[in-house]
Amino acid sequence: MPAPSVPLSHYLTTHPGVGLRFTCDGCQASHDVSMEVVLDRLKHRGLGDERTGVREVAKLATRPCARCGAMAWGSRPAFSVGR
């Protein structure tokens, strides 16, 4: 069983301006979204909040990859967003 991932709140408080990088498991295409936008979308859809883990967010993605159409995503912090 994998270890739980770090909650979004950790990055929001320790790394202002951090984003979330979504990477397609099918073709490795990626895109970055600000952490605040991710959090707003999770709350609006009733799927999570600041306690949601960074890796768990990828499992909640509902859009297919624009390049290959896959629906399998990975997610990790993107420290270059907003800089």
Topology:
Blueprint: H1 8-14, E1 19-24, E2 30-34, H2 35-45, H3 54-59, E3 73-78
Please supply descriptive tags for the structure shown above.
three-stranded antiparallel sheet, 29% helix, 83 residues, alpha+beta, 20% strand
Helix content: 25-40%
Domain module count: 1
The largest sheet has its strands arranged as: 2-1-3
Q: What order do the helices and strands follow?
A: HEEHHE
Overall form: globular
Describe this structure in words.
- There is one protein chain.
- By secondary structure, this protein is of the alpha+beta class.
- The chain has one domain (8-78).
- Helices cover 29% and strands 20% of the residues.
- The protein is built from 3 helices and 3 strands, in the order αββααβ.
- The chain has helices spanning 8-14, 35-45, 54-59, and strands spanning 19-24, 30-34, 73-78.
- Strands 2-1-3 form a 3-stranded antiparallel sheet.
- A hairpin with a 5-residue loop joins β1 (19-24) and β2.
- The longest helix has 11 residues, at 35-45.
- It is globular, with a radius of gyration of 12 Å.
- The N and C termini lie far apart (35 Å).
- The model has no long low-confidence stretch (mean pLDDT 91).
Summarize the structure.
The chain has one domain (8-78). Helices cover 29% and strands 20% of the residues. It is built from three helices and three strands.
